């Protein structure tokens, strides 16, 4: 008789629920790291079918998203006084932060080495940009020693 899958015979395996997400243009999904320019980032068919300029734009978008995600991860989420208006603003900011982080995650799971390097460079650039901005515009106060304390 054979195995039965959801009322079908063993010769016909059940269809995958997310088969369109698992298959690429040639029917095989990448299961490891790979390097190439035929990568789909965030949208089906983009930038593969549009040429080199769109690949550059896609990598620039990934770079900016990862830099923004890094900068948002370094900023504080709460303030000492949270009135209802600021709670709604903080909830919206948290939702936007989560969206940006999720989009960066979707870019990384293409397993393309070029995209992963772009994400890492974006995170480094975001960290450097925010750190240098804070150091330049908000310098740490310098502790001075009092002149009156003279050891006898």
Automatic annotation (TrEMBL):
It is a multi-pass membrane protein. It is found in: Membrane. Keywords: Copper, Copper transport, Ion transport, Membrane, Transmembrane, Transmembrane helix, Transport. GO terms for cellular component: membrane. It comes from the Eukaryota. GO terms for molecular function: copper ion transmembrane transporter activity. Its main location: membrane. InterPro entries: Cop_transporter (IPR007274). The chain crosses the membrane at residues 53-72, 99-130. Pfam families: Ctr. Belongs to the copper transporter (Ctr) (TC 1.A.56) family. SLC31A subfamily. This is Copper transport protein. It comes from Vitis vinifera (Grape).
